[in-house]
Each structure stands twice: as C-alpha cells, then as structure tokens.
Amino acid sequence: MRASCTPLKAPLRRPERLASSGRFAWVLLLAPLLLLPTSSDACDDPPRFVSMKPQGTLKPSYSPGEQIVYECRLGFQPVTPGQVLALVCQDNNTWSSLQEGCKKRRCPTLADPTNGQVILVNGSTEFGSEVHYVCNNGYYLLGTNISYCEVSSGTGVNWSDNPPTCEKILCQPPPEIQNGKYTNNHKDVFEYNEVVTYSCDPSNGPDEYSLVGESKLTCIGNGEWSSQPPQCKVVKCVYPAIEHGTIVSGFGPKYYYKATVVLKCNEGFNLYGNSVVVCGENSTWEPELPKCIKGHPPRPTDASPPNGAEGLGAGYIVLVIVAVLIGVGLLLCLYCCFCRQRKKGIYVTGESHRQDILFLSEKR
Q: Which of 147, 150, 151, 356 has the fewest CB within 10 Å, making it most exposed?
C-alpha cells in the first residue's frame, strides 16, 4: 500500500472580515481625537449680578456680536440714570466687562414720634433696612415698634408699617380697701410714677386697725400699680407669757401687728426656742413662744462643738494611729532579732569551760 501525504492549505479569510477589522482600527485611532476639547462659536452663560437682572428670557447660546441688556432688580435704581447696562459676546467667545450699575433705593426719612425716637438699626434707610421705635420714660408705644424698608407698589420702596405714637402712661384709681383709704382719692386718673399712700380708719371697737401690706403704691405702667393694696384689720396677739420666764423688753398693755418682745428664763431654767418674737399678721407670735425648762445647761455632747474642737479631735486620732504604728514596728524589730539569735545558737565562753578543755588536752 502507498500512503500519500498531501499538504493542507490554510483557509482564505473572507473580505468582509478584513474590512470590519480595518474599520475597528480606524475607530481606535480617532477616539482620542473625539475626547479633545472642541472650540465653539458661542459665549458661555452670562454672569449674574446682585442689583441687576437680564431683560426678558435668556437664549440657550449667544454668538459673537450679540448682547444682553440688564435692568435693575426690585428695590434698586440705576446709579447713572439713562445708562445702558449691556453685555456683548466678543469675537473670542467671552463676555465684555460690566460692573454693578444699580444701587439700593431709600425709604422716606422718618421723624421721631412725639415723646419718643426712631433707632436706625442698620444705620440707614436703604432697601432692606430696619428701624425700631421707643418711647420716653412715662410713655407707652401705641402701634408697631419695628418697621422694614421693603418694596411697595411698582418699583418703589416704603416702610412696612405706619409710625406709632407715644401715649402718656396713666393709671386708673387703685382699689379701695375696707376700713381704710388712700391719698388723692378724689382723682379719676393718676400719672406715671404718681404715688398714693394708704392709711387705716379709726376703729369703733376696743382694738385699733393695723395696716397689713405695702402702704405706698406707685403707677408704673398703663393701668398698672406697683403692688396689691394693703388690708386694714385688727391684728392682736395674746400676752406673751411663758412659764418660768419673763419679758425683758417690749412691755405693753396690748400687742398689735409687728409688736416685738424679748424674753428670758428665770434662774435655773434654760430657754428652748427664740428669745425674740414678733406679732404676725395672723395674730400669732412668730416664731412661736419659747419654753423654759429646768435643769443645767445642755451638755457639750448635746450642743454644737466649739470652734476648733473638730480639728483637735482629728489631730488626736492621727497621734494615736502614729503611736500604734511605731509600737508595732518596735515589736517587729525585737522579733527579728530574737529569730537571728536562735539561728546562730548559744556559745559558752565562761572561764570554767576553758579549764575543762585544758584538762582534757593534758590528759591525752
């Protein structure tokens, strides 16, 4: 048999595959060029201004030679009347320079109200500023105390509220009280800082009236007095008698409101409570009457320690602790010495012991 070996031939590529491979190579070569910035024949977005805005609606893009005209925003006015405020798109695709061409409008100048004044919070009356109104002492503000310079009808500006007024502070008559009266009770109106004084009427009974509370009231605000009116009533405390005690000062046949008495105990008795008492508005002694109890003065343990006693006690405790520690240290030292002696043993060095040694050596 004969075997023949025929060489194999590589298959030919199709022309379509070669063409597609070439197109892919061109795409790879052109991709970096697509990423390069491209030049445009239009200006970027125009700048923004605080006091100005473009007239009408902005276009998506502006070609060289086109312009944007600006106008003042609400609350502003041109710095130079009649000046055209415009930006021009230049040949190099940049905008021409333009500065702020408008300024804030001013609200009308405000005069101080009668018996008051205006405070310029921002130091001016320009658009957006704020003013405060205050009244002089003895007057109160009727109206709004704060106003703002804001846009009004059209393009102008004006204050947000009308100026207030300062009215004189007046009080109605204070309340009347039972069994008493106040000064100038014939008046229908009292002015600011005017004072009325209350007093009690004479009593028809055996005991006089006491004025409990503030006797003087002052008009401090529009219809407002400094405090509530007082009361006129009988305030009488019982005789401050204490068993085994006596009155030192404040003697009197009767004890009315705010009567003050000083008490003490007889010899051999101790006072428990306050020695000074006052007749209160509820006809009771304040604080309550003390008591006199027989016996010696309170022992030191019952009373508060004298000044420095606590410090002395603490020092004594410290000394005791130090002494105990020193004693324990000495005992430990003695114990250690005793232990060392026992380890070394006891050696006899007497004269009799020496003679015994010599005798034994001669005998040998």
A: 356
